[in-house]
Amino acid sequence: MFARHALPFLAAAVLGASLVPALAADTVNLTTTDYPPYMSASLPQGGVIVAIATEAFKRGGYTAKVSVLPWARALDDGKEGQADGVIGIWRNKEREQWFLFSEPLGSNQIGFYKRNDKAIAYKSLADLKNYSIGTVRGYANPQAFEEAKLRTTEVVDDSTNLLKLGAGRVDLVLIDKGVARHLLDTSAAAAKGQVGWIEPAVDKLPLYVAISRKAPDHDKKLKALNQGLEAMQKDGTLAKMASQAGI
Question: Please, which residues have CB within 8 angstroms of residue 150's CB and are 6 or more apart in sequence?
């Protein structure tokens, strides 16, 4: 999934009746991990990416049963075919040996937040060389950012960075846009109204559902999912769900 993030994993949990409708004959068993607002057992419908995947499968004739697991197990269950697939995963060459990938459900946008009272803008990362930038210890940041050799200061999590930014202790923070919006409504609410996203994003990484090559009828399940996503795109549901979640 996320090369960038050292996630705070939940204990294994299965999203309940609010997410999974009554089981139908055609059920697809999926795994994911806790990464709000994209995926989380604590959010309505399991987070926006889970909600999109569930609706797309529903339109394709499947009921999605989603288990929230530590990331390593979520991925391994998909690799081994113990689950039909994984929700909310980045695509790379290595993973293609185990999975077939859907059309994108959304994307992670990695970029900068600044204080609203500071006029900071950039066209290239070199324009930011005089600013202090908050990052998170243990994260693998975008390659272009690392290569720019900017002035950074590390903290333990994204919430702490946003609070530091709100207090004026750093000039910028590098963060996923959707994660920032979620945190500003929750644990970093003290900084809400003081900070905001600046364009352009440093990197955009699509999120997929990966269907296990070992899953029964894997081609059929992938086709049903993609047909559901196409229908959601055509009728505006996909854009509406993404917009409401701020991704």
Answer: 125, 128, 129, 131, 133
Give me the half-sphere count of Cα atoms (radius 13 Å) on the Cβ side of residue 129: 6
CB atoms within 10 A of CB 29: 18
More confident residue, 178 or 8: 178
Q: What share of the chain is helix, strand, coil (3-state, %, to 5)?
A: 35, 25, 40
Could you say which DSSP state residue 5 is in? Answer: -
Amino acid in the structure at residue 18: S
Contact partners, residue 2, CB within 8 Å, separation at least 6:
35, 71, 90, 108
143-162 confidence digits (pLDDT tens): 899 999 999 999 988 999 99
- Taking only the tens place, the pLDDT of each residue in 21-31 is 444 449 999 99
Q: How confident is the model at residue 198 (pLDDT cuts 50, 70, 90)?
A: very high
Residue 182 Cα to chain centre, angstroms: 12
CA 156 vs. chain centroid, Å, equals 19
The CA distance from 247 to 242, in Å, is 5
Give Cα separations from 204 to 2, 26, 36, 229 (angstroms): 12, 34, 17, 20
Neighbouring C-beta atoms of residue 242, cutoff 10 Å: 17
User: Do β-strands 133-136 and 99-101 pair in parallel, antiparallel, or remain unpaired?
Assistant: unpaired
Contact yes or no for 208/49 (Cβ under 8 A): no
Q: Which pTM does this prediction carry?
A: 0.73
Radius of gyration in angstroms for the set of CA atoms belonging to the chain, rounded to a whole number? 19
